[in-house]
Amino acid sequence: MAEVLVLVDHVDGAVRKPTLELLTIARRIGEPVAVHLGAGADTAASTLGEYGATRVLAADAPEFGGYLVVPKVDALEQAVEAVGPVAVLVPSSAEGKEIAARLAVRLGSGLITDAVDLEAGDDGPVATQSAFAAAFTVKSRVTNGVPVITVKPNSAAPEAASAAGAVEPLEVSFGDAAKGTKVVSRTPRESTGRPELTEAAIVVSGGRGVNGAENFHVVESLADSLGAAVGASRAAVDAGWYPHTNQVGQTGKTVSPQLYIAAGISGAIQHRAGMQTSKTIVAINKDAEAPIFDLVDYGVVGDLFQVLPQLTEEVESRKG
Amino acid sequence: MSLRIVVCVKYVPDATGDRHFAEDRTTDREAVDGLLSELDEYAVEQALQIKEANGGEAEITVLTMGGDDAKDALRKALSMGADKAVHVNDEALHGTDVLGTSLVLAKAVEHVGYDLVVCGMASTDGTMGVLPAILAERLGTPQVTLLSEVAVADGKVTGRRDGDAASEQLEASLPAVVSVTDQSGEARYPSFKGIMAAKKKPVEALELSDLGVDASAVGLEGSWTAVDGVTERPARTAGTIVKDEGEGGKQLAEYLAGQKFI
Q1: What is the ipTM of this complex?
Q2: How far out from the chain centre does Cα B150 lie?
Q3: CA nearest to B79, candidates B191, B185, B203
Q4: How confident is the model at residue A187 (pLDDT cuts 50, 70, 90)?
Q5: What is the pTM of this model?
Q6: Residues of B with Cβ-Cβ distance to A109 under 8 angstroms
Q7: Where are the domains positioned within chain A?
Q8: Which of B168, B183, B252 to mutate to test the interface with A (most CBs of A within 10 A)?
Q9: Any CB–CB contact under 8 A between A80 and chain B?
Q10: What confidence score (pLDDT) does residue B1 get?
Q11: Domain that holds residue B177
Q12: CATH assignment of A202-319?
């Protein structure tokens, strides 16, 4: 059966959820073969096998952590040569997209980024993408070479399907460009203990209306009561109230949770681009004319400093 | 020595407008007014700051590929302070994908001559965010991308790349391709003097044949992806809006409970 390469996103062998989604999606097209670069392949292999990887091609080298992007492109290119897959699927992270793009150039392949769904088609895999701030849905496919496609988080529910997950070493030789950009130092982000923004079932975001970093605890308290991730609008991030890694919108994260709660966010196109495919949208805003209310399933016109704490208390008491 | 900086910019339909696809499923560039992609303003800004930090010893060329209107994007960048512009404009380019675009830009960058290429993090229309990486691949130079901070000194580019898992400090030798994020620093507004000066700055017009790019490698025909369909997402149905009269939080909780979220 045809094989599909899946690049594994992991932290020292702890496989991140989007990879499990990719393995699930890959099975619609062929047999998934995982490519694990860096430490922890043996740890990862059991998880990867559980979600359908028949083989796990593993390579570890200091270049993967020591230099930006290119060493992984070299490895993935050589995995493609070794396997001869019908498609290559890569998680749509910033790094994943750059790896996929350079790989496509080397393979002479068409490239599709940020797919939100993928299905088998008569002429190869058909990808679904969102365009123009999610105002449109686009169906597209690669017409030349082995399709290289990056897939966004939350594009499928991971489904287990036991396979061998046999670890096989992947021999990698690095090209001249591999050591072009040195990673001089790396400062890991501190964990907040909250779910990943792009993976969370519920997201609570704060915007300009939160009016200061010191007030964001109101948003965080609600998020914690719901087991949600915390997001922020560009206005809140630009003002320095919340980290950029939490920004929802065109230049931040695109989220598509079951429930999105926007507090003190007007709903500019920048923000809508990042959240309007959410299943249920709720907004709290003082301004009844705010464009966010055009998107909502339920909206409260009011002061978020009154509404959010009351909601948090209500959630906590219902849990109790 | 004077540093040769090329800034790649894109002329895009205004994101606040009602953007659509044309009949051939390419981006409709007629119906909505265009402008210099906001995210490319950050690239122009960082190029200007690098020039200033280099004691003014740099020449900034702003480069775009696009139709006649795309010169507006070049004018904007020139009015911000770039020194000269190159406009690749050829009918055969209509519908070119990112691989074709990067091929043309790589040839144009080589035509201009460069020590540093600066790009924005993504376009606001296609939003792929991969062109800088592909450009580096094609030029065979280091890729130093998605920087929130960037500096050039002693033949090296350094910068900070803020990822989800970690923040990385990067370093590469020139020549290199850099991309900067919207966290890299607010772009300046063109001054009146800058706007007037821009009118006199040279804009070189190039066609594909000037760059030795075959028309079959670009355009819709040369694209290695095909769009089978575009569908407008149905407008969200109007929801319930209540005014908080002191019970707003409780009403919202009631709604969320009804939807089984709590």
Answers
A1: 0.95
A2: 17
A3: B191
A4: very high
A5: 0.95
A6: 224
A7: 3-179, 202-319
A8: B252
A9: no
A10: 61
A11: 3-222
A12: 3.40.50.1220
